[in-house]
């Protein structure tokens, strides 16, 4: 008997776009230990790739340059499996049917790199399975499920430029235009808990007013007031981060910095040609590092379930 019913598709593909924190202001800390953040977030056009197919039994296979990094992750800690199982339970509770699914994850983004790799994979799993199973889930329920998977999952579910506040649950779209971008990671491990532990302050000022239109010049002016409060302690732990940001500045990036808790750094450029020159020069100078030439998505171009 075919597993393809009238309410399912046979195969679906999703891109788990890299999440880039153009700014990350640490503005406080809750009683439960969670830090309060104010972040300007955008997404790359590129990321991990996931394929979902109706199957006889559930499975997850890994491929890509960084697949080996996930090989030791226990199934109970794998965010793709968590997203699959929790979405299935949510859908089943409403009386809708699901099928077993074979998931293929091509891991092309570095792991634990400050660009939301695991969270983006979980969000792409939610989007892909909703399409594969053709199920209806109330947006509020989907957001609650996403937040339960991780603080970055709701924003990765949207995958478009936004401002994130609180612990990542308060999201507002912003009119950020698209820029050519180069991502660079020196492939050095970074301890996020240690970075937060070494913060000098946890009550820093929030992000100021942001442009309400996609005017590139207005946004470039606003970048001058942005910062990543995690960058100084991260650079103290991993000096290569400071070197990476210095090289991006030398490559004539319009704006550069560290994303999340690192170690991935970004540079935004005036033109595709300028970004390509920077990417080629960085790849030649540090051939052992991860370098990606891409673009940020423009407002309205993200993946919304």
TrEMBL record:
Pathway per its UniProt entry is:
Isoprenoid biosynthesis; isopentenyl diphosphate biosynthesis via DXP pathway; isopentenyl diphosphate from 1-deoxy-D-xylulose 5-phosphate: step 3/6
Q: Which InterPro entries match?
A: GHMP_kinase_C_dom (IPR013750), GHMP_kinase_C_sf (IPR036554), GHMP_kinase_N_dom (IPR006204), IspE (IPR004424), Ribosomal_Su5_D2-typ_SF (IPR020568), Ribsml_uS5_D2-typ_fold_subgr (IPR014721)
Name the active site residues: 19, 152
Residue sites binding ATP per the record? 110-120
Domain (GHMP kinase N-terminal): residue spans on this chain: 78-159
Q: Which GO terms describe its molecular function?
A: 4-(cytidine 5'-diphospho)-2-C-methyl-D-erythritol kinase activity; ATP binding
In terms of SUPFAM superfamilies, this protein maps to: GHMP Kinase, C-terminal domain (SSF55060), Ribosomal protein S5 domain 2-like (SSF54211)
Recorded E.C. number(s)? 2.7.1.148
Q: Which reaction does it catalyse?
A: 4-CDP-2-C-methyl-D-erythritol + ATP = 4-CDP-2-C-methyl-D-erythritol 2-phosphate + ADP + H(+)
What are the GO BP annotations of this UniProt entry?
A: isopentenyl diphosphate biosynthetic process, methylerythritol 4-phosphate pathway; terpenoid biosynthetic process
Domain GHMP kinase C-terminal intervals: 224-285
PANTHER family with a match to the protein in the record: 4-DIPHOSPHOCYTIDYL-2-C-METHYL-D-ERYTHRITOL KINASE, CHLOROPLASTIC
The job of this chain, per UniProt, is described as:
Catalyzes the phosphorylation of the position 2 hydroxy group of 4-diphosphocytidyl-2C-methyl-D-erythritol.
Q: Which family does it belong to?
A: Belongs to the GHMP kinase family. IspE subfamily.
Q: What is this protein called?
A: 4-diphosphocytidyl-2-C-methyl-D-erythritol kinase
- Give the species this sequence originates from: Peteryoungia ipomoeae
């Amino acid at each position: 008997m075919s597993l393809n019913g009238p309410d399912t598709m046979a195969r679906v593909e999703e891109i788990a776009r890299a999440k880039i924190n153009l700014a990350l202001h640490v503005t406080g800390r809750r009683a439960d230990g969670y830090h309060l953040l104010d972040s300007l977030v955008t997404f790359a056009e590129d990321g991990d790739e996931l394929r979902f197919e109706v199957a006889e039994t559930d499975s997850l296979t890994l491929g890509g340059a960084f697949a080996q990094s996930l090989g030791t992750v226990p199934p109970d800690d794998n965010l793709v499996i968590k997203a699959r199982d929790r979405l299935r339970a949510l859908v089943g509770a409403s009386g809708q049917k699901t099928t077993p699914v074979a998931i293929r994850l091509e891991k092309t983004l570095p792991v634990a790199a400050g660009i939301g790799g695991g969270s983006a994979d979980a969000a792409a799993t939610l989007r892909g399975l909703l399409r594969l199973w053709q199920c209806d889930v109330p947006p509020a329920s989907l957001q609650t499920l996403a937040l339960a998977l991780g603080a970055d999952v709701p924003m990765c579910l949207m995958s478009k430029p936004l401002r994130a506040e609180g612990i990542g649950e308060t999201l507002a779209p912003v009119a950020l235009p698209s820029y050519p971008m180069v991502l660079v990671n020196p492939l050095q491990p970074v301890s996020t808990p240690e970075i937060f532990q070494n913060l000098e302050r946890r009550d820093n000022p929030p992000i100021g007013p942001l442009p309400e239109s996609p005017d590139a010049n207005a946004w470039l002016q606003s970048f001058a007031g942005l910062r990543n409060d995690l960058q100084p302690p991260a650079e103290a732990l991993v000096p290569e981060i400071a070197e990476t940001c210095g090289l991006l500045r030398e490559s004539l990036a319009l704006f550069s910095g560290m994303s999340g808790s690192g170690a991935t750094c970004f540079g935004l450029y005036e033109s595709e040609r300028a970004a390509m020159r920077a990417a080629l020069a960085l790849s030649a100078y540090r051939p052992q590092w991860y370098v990606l030439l891409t673009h940020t998505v423009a407002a309205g171009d993200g993946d919304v379930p």
